[in-house]
Amino acid sequence: EKGGYPYFMLKEIAEQPKAVADTLLGRLQGGSLSLDEVRISDDDLRQVDKVIVIACGTSYHAGLIAKYAIEHWTRVPVEVEVASEFRYRDPIVDRDTLVVAISQSGESMDTLMAVRHARKQKARVVAITNSNGSTIARESDAVLYTHAGPEVGVAATKTFITQVVACYLLGLFLARTRGTMYDDEVRSVVRELSDMPEHIDTVLDTVEPVRELARSLAGARAVLFLGRHVGYPVALEGALKLKELAYMHAEAFAAGELKHGPIALIEDGLPVVVVVPSPRGRSVLHDKIVSNIQEVRARGARTIVIAEEGDEAVVPYADTVIRVPQTSTLLAPLVSTIPLQVFACELALAKGLDVDQPRNLAKSVTVE
Ligand code: BG6
Q1: Could you tell me how many helices (H) and strands (E) the chain has, helices first?
Q2: How far is it, in rounded angstroms, from Cα 84 to Cα 199?
Q3: What is the DSSP string of 71-83?
Q4: d(CA 233, CA 352)
Q5: How far, in Å, is the centroid of ligand 1 from the Cα of 364?
């Protein structure tokens, strides 16, 4: 049932192009989107004045990416919060708040409790989950299923990628309902989304050097990850994967924060993974991160750079360049996350660890 792979995680990483295609299937007609189960009217969606995304772990990182897309497309403010914090801080929630609960299992107790708390205060709740009929799906006003198929590996991979896709779909749906995007704009994002399975395939086909790199770093004490914009949550996810699978100290920072503290950590040979945004999109972002790479390298870091195909500006400062296909800035996480999953998985395997069942972790945590 591992389909010839020694671990479920390897199989699930490889299944991502199909998982994305399945999640898009039937939902992208001219940019319209059908939620699987909706008990929220268009009028109510037009009334929404704030979106709050709640989730735990990897699902929280999908939520962070959602913020960039949903705010950009809908101009509605989006907060993203870990479910366990949301619930206990007396959040400002009312009937005009749209809560988006992201949970692979649909059973995480922290997220479920946050959903109940939000509903009690009359917020509408949309669930993004991979589990049909799960508790969170049943208790929400609308459900958007990710069609990743069952995920056995404890560390989320294909469910994360499909959660990000679902968040984009939700953002486009809201933008259309609220009239904040022209049909042409929606269509162009939709077109790009449908190309994503192919792009992910390309990343998977060219990922061998990442495996070699990971094996060479199995003895490292720590790895830092840097990103900007949507690359920042990707960096957070890369670091979390490394903690979960390889039990390694891994930390991610917004690259702009470097100079405010983390740069003190840089020492000779420290591996620093940098997620670089497209130079063709917001070029300011790109230029800034290139100087961040220079800064850490000048202090001895071993720089591992994830950059778009054709981005030559990073080459002089990178010890290793990992290439991903060209995408728009907002959709880049769908390709840039993949090498980080492979990196963490391979590094853990090189240490002889069981990547499907990391110590101390459970696939679904049904206690608070
Ligand atoms: C953790 C899992 O316990 O729960 C993570 O080990 C997962 O992989 C997190 O991201 C959240 O789970 P869910 O099911 O709510 O997305």
Answers
A1: 13, 11
A2: 35
A3: HHHH---EEEEEH
A4: 28
A5: 6
Task: Give, using CA atoms, the residue closest to atom 6 of ligand 1.
Answer: 363
Backbone angles phi, psi at 308, to 5 degrees: -65, 150
Tokens of 336: 């840039």
Mutate to test the pocket of ligand 1, among 65, 167, 364 (most ligand atoms within 8 A of CB): 364
* Ramachandran angles phi, psi of 197, nearest 5°: -55, -40
363 catalytically annotated:
yes
DSSP letter, residue 218? T
Ligand 1 mutation target, pool 54, 100, 103, 108, most atoms within 8 A of CB: 108
Question: pLDDT per residue over 8-25, tens digit each?
Answer: 999 999 999 999 999 999
The torsion defined by the Cα of 61, 155, 342 and 12, in degrees rounded to 10, comes to -110
Check: pTM over 0.95? Answer yes or no: yes
User: ipTM of the assembly?
Assistant: 0.92
| 163 CA closest ligand 1 atom index | 16
**For residue range 169-218, what is the model confidence (pLDDT) as tens digits?**
999 999 989 999 988 898 899 999 999 999 999 999 999 999 999 999 99
Strands 50-55 and 78-82: parallel
Q: Is residue 10 within a helix (H) or strand (E), and if so which, with residue range?
A: helix 8-14
Does residue 358 have its Cβ closer than 6 Å to ligand 1? no
Q: What is the mean pLDDT of the chain?
A: 94
